[in-house]
Amino acid sequence: MESLACEWLKGRSGWYVRLPTEAEWECACRAGTDTPFWTGHAITETQANFGENSCERGTTPVDQFPPNPWGLYDMHGNVWEWCSSEYDPDYSGKELEDASKDISNENSCVLRGGSWFSRKADIRSAKRAAAQPFSIEAFPGFRIVISA
Length: 148
Hints:
alpha+beta; 148 residues; paralog of FGE (formylglycine-generating enzyme); 3 helices; two-stranded antiparallel sheet; globular
């Protein structure tokens, strides 16, 4: 399930780029907090692009809402984002693993962050969804990690 975009960027830049694991994604989303949103216990329509405020807007450019304390934009809402981890409903360790190297693995992978069409409850830091790696139903996006 390794993103073709990651492979393309590796070839063009020489950088090692990949999708984040589910655990890495959640850590980045929380940005040192332990609340449902990096903004605290609540989030408003001025802080993220989600269903209650986006019906006419759809997705938005990345810098339309404030970044989290670590400088990352759109961790809540806008588009669901692929993670490289295989979905495991029990959190038994797969959230720490990168399953993207096994291209024969057709198990569901994790989506995080919610989207512009999601309800507020579905954009929490801990909210997760699952989809088949080559599914077009979820219309997901992705965020890359650059590693040494």
